[in-house]
């Protein structure tokens, strides 16, 4: 059995072990994180739950993504955002919190997170692309440390932002609105953040 209420976000990751097992996580408004056993899943039996742990006591988790392990840790970490504008790094194997930082506070709580790799003169820099449920998209420079000067946000749509994605070279971001029936293409300029 999995979440008892609505699921907020899901993400896939790779294991740090040599066998490179695909891992699937989900977070929900019940404040729990579930890891599923993708290898042993079947059409008839579904996705068996491998592990479960509690993420929050009062806040609700709103988005998650697998944190790039090469940044500042060699362990596999799950990054979650909550409705109190906090971002938390979790080790899902030990079920323990590794870091809590302030996230962006403009435009409401983070609804979606995607990884953006920007290839500049100094090599590859990693950012998190985020969207709120209402109007705003933005970037967070990694590694995550809570510094508000390493984030930016802008109004992308007049109402809700349904989804976001980035081009493979990190130069463009695409956003899909709701009632405005628009898909916008944005050129990424990270100079103001750096």
Could you characterize the architecture of this molecule?
The termini are far apart. By secondary structure, the chain is an all-beta fold. Helices cover 0% and strands 56% of the residues. The chain folds into 2 domains: 1-102; 111-194. The strands form 3 sheets. The protein has a 6-stranded antiparallel beta sheet, with no helix packed on it. A 4-stranded antiparallel beta sheet has the order 1-2-3-4, with no helix packed on it. A 4-stranded antiparallel beta sheet has the order 5-6-7-8, with no helix packed on it. It has strands at 7-14, 22-28, 32-36, 49-54, 61-67, 77-82, 86-91, 96-102, 110-120, 123-132, 134-141, 151-166, 172-177, 183-187. It contains no helices and 14 strands.
Précis, in short:
With 194 residues, the protein is an all-beta fold. The chain has strands at 7-14, 22-28, 32-36, 49-54, 61-67, 77-82, 86-91, 96-102, 110-120, 123-132, 134-141, 151-166, 172-177, 183-187.
Tally of individual domains: 2
Q: Going across the major beta sheet, what is the strand order?
A: 9-10-11-12-13-14
Number of E-state strands: 14
- Using only C-alpha atoms, the radius of gyration works out to 17 Å
Provide mean pLDDT, rounded: 88
Instruction: List low-pLDDT spans.
Output: none
SS content category: mainly beta
Describe the protein's topology.
Blueprint: E1 7-14, E2 22-28, E3 32-36, E4 49-54, E5 61-67, E6 77-82, E7 86-91, E8 96-102, E9 110-120, E10 123-132, E11 134-141, E12 151-166, E13 172-177, E14 183-187
Antiparallel strand pairs: 1-2, 2-3, 3-4, 5-6, 6-7, 7-8, 9-10, 10-11, 11-12, 12-13, 13-14
């Amino acid at each position: 059995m999995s979440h008892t209420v609505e699921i907020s976000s899901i993400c896939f990751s790779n294991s740090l072990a040599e066998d490179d097992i695909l891992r699937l996580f989900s977070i929900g408004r019940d404040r729990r994180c579930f890891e599923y056993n993708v290898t042993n899943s079947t059409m008839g039996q579904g996705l068996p739950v491998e592990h479960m742990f509690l993420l929050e006591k009062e806040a609700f988790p709103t988005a998650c993504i697998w944190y790039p392990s090469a940044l500042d840790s060699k362990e596999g970490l799950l990054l979650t955002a909550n409705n109190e504008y906090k971002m938390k790094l979790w080790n899902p194997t030990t079920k323990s919190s590794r870091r809590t930082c302030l996230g962006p506070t403009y435009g409401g709580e983070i609804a979606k997170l995607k990884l953006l790799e920007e290839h500049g003169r100094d090599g590859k820099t990693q950012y998190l692309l985020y969207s709120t449920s209402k109007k705003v998209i933005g970037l967070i420079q990694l590694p995550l440390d809570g510094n508000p000067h390493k984030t930016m946000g802008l109004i992308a749509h007049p109402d809700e932002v349904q989804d976001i994605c980035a081009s493979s070279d990190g130069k463009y971001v695409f956003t899909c609105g709701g009632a405005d029936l628009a898909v916008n293409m944005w050129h990424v300029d990270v100079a103001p953040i750096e």
